[in-house]
Amino acid sequence: MRGGPGQLLAGRYRLTDRPEPLRALAVDERTGESVLLRALELPALLAGGRDPDEPVPAQADRLVRRVAAVGSAAPSWHPRLLRGVGAFVEGELLWTVEERPRGQSLAELLAAGPVPPYRAAELVADLVGALRALHEAGLSHGNLTAESVLVCEDGAAMLGGLLAGVAEEALAEDLGGPGGRRRYDVRATLVGPVAERWPLDGGPAGDCWALGVLLQRMVTGRSPFPEGTVPELVTAVRDGRREPSAVCGPLASLAERLLRPDPTLRPTAEAVRGELAELLAGAPEPVDEEWAARAVELKPEAP
């Protein structure tokens, strides 16, 4: 996207930094809170090639309403779930908006190296609490990746990306239909070869599988599945061809069970929460001195 600090989107969100191609930090001028904007490019048939002041085409409006419905149903009260603010269409982009406390994405932190196992257990314990709340509300996340996780300045992890994931899945269905090759092709373009986004099943069990992938990525610094291309990744997931979870140390058994092909054999979010609480109760101290020091170095300077 074009633009820079000071630009106003949707008459409400004032950009505070030079945006990346499909994401930007902003301030919500209605509430004063910091937010993260994520964008999806809409094909001309949805955007209508329109002027920003023209009405939103009906198909794009349905996407916005579908995203908003999930945001309204999500348990925004949960302290480890980033609150979705809303969605809007401007130009040829569908934007989703969520709160953005100060911190760094897990992806940014992993770029500096893997996470010690017990520190990974702390982060996963935070995330599984958010997943449990979503599942109890009758929702699944579907977008549990390192990019969707925010590690706050106090060290806690928060799960975001819910609305962005809903927008991607809704657009894939709108353009490709409910299933089949065309939807796969559209989804592959939107999502790319990110292992956490390609479970063989959806719903809460798919979220728990994605959590297993993310857990192993945290501890090893890499995906347990090859991520060269989407076909290569999907074939490996289908065939169960991956790096063994033994590399995860004290988390090996949990990662192995989360990645079981049969969804009925995977632990639930509630079971994972209990298992991690027991593991962390016996964790050596300090849990993460070296990694915490690295995280502090990566913190953005205060404005």
Task: Outline the structure in words.
The structure is a single chain. This protein has about 300 residues and is α+β, with helices and mostly antiparallel strands. The chain has one domain (about 20-290): Transferase(Phosphotransferase) domain 1 (Transferase(Phosphotransferase), domain 1, Orthogonal Bundle). It has 11 helices and 9 strands. It has helices at about 45, 60-75, 105-110, 115-135, 160-175, 180-190, 205-220, 230-240, 250-260, 270-280, 290-300, and strands spanning about 10, 15, 25-30, 35-40, 85-90, 95-100, 105, 150, 155-160. Strand 1 and strand 2 form a beta hairpin. Helix 4 packs antiparallel against helix 10 (about 270-280) and helix 5 runs antiparallel to helix 6. The longest helix is centred in the middle third of the chain and has 20 residues, at about 115-135. The model has no long low-confidence stretch (mean pLDDT about 90).
In CATH, the topology is named Transferase(Phosphotransferase), domain 1
- Sum up the overall morphology in one term: globular
Q: Hey, roughly how much beta strand do the residues contain?
A: 5-15%
Largest sheet: 6 strands, antiparallel
Strand order of the largest sheet: 1-2-3-4-6-5
Helical content class: 40-55%
The CATH C-level class name: Mainly Alpha
Q: Overall pLDDT, averaged? A: 90
Radius of gyration: 19 Å
Number of helices: 11
| CATH homologous group name | Transferase(Phosphotransferase) domain 1
Q: How far apart are the first and last residues' alpha carbons, in Å?
A: 24 Å
The secondary-structure element order is: EEEEHHEEEHHEEHHHHHHH
Number of separate structural domains: 1
